[in-house]
Specification:
Layout (H helix, E strand, L loop, with lengths): L2 H18 L2 H17 L11 H10 L5 H38 L4 H5 L1 H11 L1
Amino acid sequence: MNERDLGSKITEQLEQGANQLGQTTLQRLEAGRSVALQQYHPEPELGVAGAGHAILRLRHSHLLNARLLLPLALVLLSLGGIMYWHNAKQNNDVEDTDTHLLTGDLPINAYLDKDFDAWLKRSSD
C-alpha cells in the first residue's frame, strides 16, 4: 500500500465519520477551522527568498540581547588572553632552554673532541 492509497482510505473514513455527526457539531468544527486558519501564519522557508525575513527575525530575537552578548564577549576575551599567555610562556621556556644551553659551561674536552663537531651537525639537522 502506497501513500496515496493510505490517504484515500483515511479520507473515506473521515468522511463517513463526518456524515454521522450532527449539524451543530459540523458547524462548530467549521468555525474552529476558520479561526485556526485565520491565526495561522506560515514561516517563510530559509533560502535566498527567506533571507530577509530571517535577518528581521534575528534582529528582533532575544539572541542579540545585551545580557547574552556581554558574557559571551567576556568568555571570548578570556580565551584569547589564555591562548596568548600560553604561547608567550611556551616561547619563554624555549628561549630559557636555549640560553642555558649556550651559556652553560662545557668542559674543555668537549671542544677538543673531534666527534663533538659531528654531533653538533647531526643534532642541528
